[in-house]
Design a protein that fits this description.
The protein is 15% helix and 47% strand. The chain has 156 residues and is an alpha+beta fold. It has a 4-stranded antiparallel beta sheet with strand order 1-2-3-4, with no helix packed on it. It has a 4-stranded antiparallel beta sheet with strand order 5-6-7-8, with no helix packed on it.
C-alpha cells in the first residue's frame, strides 16, 4: 500500500511540474503588514478564454524573518482572496461547462506540495461565471477559499 501511495505521489508531482499555467499574473500591489517582512501581494490576470474579464488575487507572502522564526522555509499560507470584474466586452470562447469547471490560473505556494488555484465554473441556469480561489495540496486539502461571480446579462 505504501508503495502505491509513493507511486501516486510521484505521478502527481510529475504531472504538476509538467503542467504550466499559460496565464501570467502581473503584480499590481504589495501591502506591508508587519516588521517581519510579511506582505499581502495583489496580482491581476485576464481569463485566457473569456475576453473582458480581469481577476485580482490577494495572498499572504511570508518574509525571511518569519521563515527563520517558524522554521518553515518553503511554504506560504493557503489564505487567498479573489475578485473578478467585467473590464471590457465579454466574449466567451470554448470553455469547459461541466460542474467541475476548469483551471484558469495556478501559482505555487510551496516548492512542491501546495499551489493557489483559480477555477472558472459556468452557471448556465443563472448565466453567471463563477471564479473560485483555493489551495490545492497533495493531501490535507484546505477549506480556505474565496469566490467571485460575474453575471452575463446586460443592463437595459
Amino acid at each position: 500500500m505504501d508503495r502505491i501511495r509513493r507511486l501516486f505521489t510521484f505521478l502527481f508531482l510529475a504531472t504538476a511540474l509538467l503542467t504550466v499555467s499559460s496565464v501570467r499574473a502581473e503584480q499590481v500591489g504589495n501591502v506591508d503588514v508587519d516588521w517581519l517582512g510579511n506582505d499581502i501581494i495583489i496580482e491581476a490576470f485576464s481569463d485566457p478564454k473569456i475576453e473582458g474579464i480581469t481577476c485580482h488575487v490577494a495572498y499572504f507572502e511570508r518574509g525571511l524573518i518569519d521563515r527563520l522564526q517558524k522554521g518553515n522555509w518553503f511554504e506560504d499560507p493557503s489564505n487567498s482572496s479573489i475578485s473578478c470584474r467585467q473590464t471590457g466586452v465579454i466574449e466567451i470562447g470554448d470553455i469547459d461547462r461541466s460542474d467541475e469547471g476548469e483551471s484558469v490560473f495556478s501559482e505555487r505556494r510551496s516548492i512542491i506540495w501546495k499551489s493557489l488555484n483559480v477555477k472558472r465554473i459556468f452557471d448556465k441556469q443563472n448565466q453567471t461565471l463563477i471564479y473560485i480561489a483555493h489551495a490545492r495540496q497533495v493531501q490535507d486539502g484546505s477549506a480556505k477559499m474565496s469566490i467571485s461571480t460575474i453575471p452575463l446579462f446586460q443592463n437595459e
